[in-house]
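Example record used in the benchmark description.
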Amino acid sequence: MNGRAARHLILVGGGHAHLHTLRRLRELTGAGIAVTLVTPARHHYYSGMGPGMLGGLYTEEQVRIDVQRLAESGGGRCVIGEAAGLDPDCRLLRLTDGRELAYDALSLNAGSIVAGLVPALPGVYPVKPIANLARAVERLRDAGCTAPPRLLVVGGGAAGVEIAGNGRRLLGDRGSVTIASAGPLLAPFPPLTRELVRASFDRRGIRMIEDTPVSGWTDGTAILADGRRIPFDVALVSTGVKPPLFLESLGLPLAPDGSLSVNRFLQSTGSASVFGGGDCIAFEGAPLARVGVYAVRQGPLLHANLRAYLDGCPLVPFTPQKRFLQILNLGDGTGVLVRGKIVRHGTLPWLLKDLIDRRFVRSFQK
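Model output (structure tokens):
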């Protein structure tokens, strides 16, 4: 590759697209490939179960995966740190603490961050990282010791809806839950999905404010664009996602939204030795929705292409599925299943989601 005796693969981030490689790391380390995982934290929280953790359906331990253990048990090493920049020509990754790591191949699966303003105020949390939901639970419980707790969810997408529904589950009949959306709830979804969610929220006393963005904040109060003020003890901000800002420091081609630009082999369009998967990438001319199913599906192919690149073999293209299954956990023992134009609501969709999610996470916890 570049003259070094040992081939070195660096995985930046332990997210959905890298989990497959971490589970099968022995295939790489056993072939003489040194593997280093760079991650800001020991655990990766599975986003699909995050709202359920907020609602008390799952414990923190049930929704997180010990990626450090996966890396080390597979013969790799784990570096707790964050990427700051890249020298693609010298193949060096720079960390925020000043360390530099040399690589022969590098893969980015650094996830995404919440788009929009998240003020540094007490009780205001972005929904990413998912661990913030556990902090929100603690604060709501503390607030409930003196008065009925007040939860505000900002953002009317799938994550915001699930968080609002599970927030109501957490608070029960005590306290208030408000969801405020700049547009209609679940705007990209089929109309029936919105009707079902609105009916569920109406029955459960969840206040819905649509087509009115939050335009300002003060301590304990969100200010809407129409001047209304919503007091809260906890505000969870779920206003869409965007790529992590450090991608701008990589010196590689980026898509207009700041994602790493990749070709159909999940390979950077500016450096053959850099690959990527999940929320932090965008395909040339054909962006994908930022949903976990694509990252999970990219995992096996990313693993195969990293090995193929290091071995000097041909790469395999990724073909995204045109339709995918989404199930919303409403927090009341029901779910809304959506696949294309098909929409179903009830207990069975929720049970299916619970089964799929538990099975997925457990497969990496063994």
